Amino acid sequence: MTTWIVLFRGVGGDTLLPVQPLKQALAEEGFRSVVTYINTGNVVLVSNDTPKRIARHVANIALEHFGFSKHIMIVSKAEWGRLIVNNPFPLAVNEPAKLHAYVMERAPDPEAVEALRQKATGPEQFEIRGRVLYYYTPQGVSNARLHPKIEPTLKIAATARNWNTVVKLSHLAEQVARDAK
Which PANTHER family does UniProt cross-reference here (predicted)? Predict the structure, then answer.
């Protein structure tokens, strides 16, 4: 059994996904040790299935039960650990609301990455490692100019979590993995 972190894209603000009913629906559909974290589309669960099959199954549950249809990113606990270790902005962890990890559906094309670099004219910094884009906004994400350009420029779906959430999901995944044994 593998512990997975499931990230829904586009949850928050006007788009709500009720976490307690979602947790219950996922458990009823056979996922084990389901834990949700805040109302922004974060789930930790245990499954033997492949990431693609989990994403399809979770997407179907979200659509059938809640009318919710957005991209879903699946990351194993081990991959999430590497996401944390590979952070290219280690000093920024002291400002966790200003450091974000975008999990992308796939690694972006080099041409798209270069196009994004050309648009990065402010103090913000980003680094891509595999299918994770690390984004540091010293002035805060609400004042960041690059933020709204990331997905359209890279031409892929992605979902971002601030470093507080990244760390909390890591702790939850560790706990779920221990409890699932």
Answer: BLL4334 PROTEIN, DUF1697 DOMAIN-CONTAINING PROTEIN
**Residue range 40-78, pLDDT digits in tens:** 889 999 999 999 999 999 999 999 998 888 899 999 999
Q: Tell me how many degrees the CA angle 43-47-53 measures, rounded to the nearest 5.
A: 90
Q: How confident is the model at residue 19, as a pLDDT?
A: 86
73-84 average pLDDT score: 97
* 129: Cβ contacts below 8 Å, ≥ 6 apart: 86, 88
Report the distance separating Cα 174 and Cα 171, nearest Å.
5
- Which of the four pLDDT bands, split at 50, 70 and 90, describes residue 177? very high
DSSP state of 34: E
Task: Tell me how far apart the alpha carbons of residues 34 and 166 are, in angstroms, rounded to a whole number.
Answer: 17
Type of residue numbered 51: P
Q: Where are the domains of the chain?
A: 2-78+166-180, 81-162
- What is the C-alpha to C-alpha distance for residues 47 and 69, in angstroms, rounded to an integer? 21
**Phi, psi (degrees; rounded to nearest 5) at 105:** -65, -25
Model pLDDT, residue 14:
67
* Distance separating alpha carbons of residues 13 and 139, to the nearest angstrom: 22
For residue 119, give Cα distances in angstroms to 100, 151, 161.
18, 12, 22
The pTM for the full model equals: 0.94
At the topology level, CATH places domain 81-162 in Alpha-Beta Plaits (3.30.70)
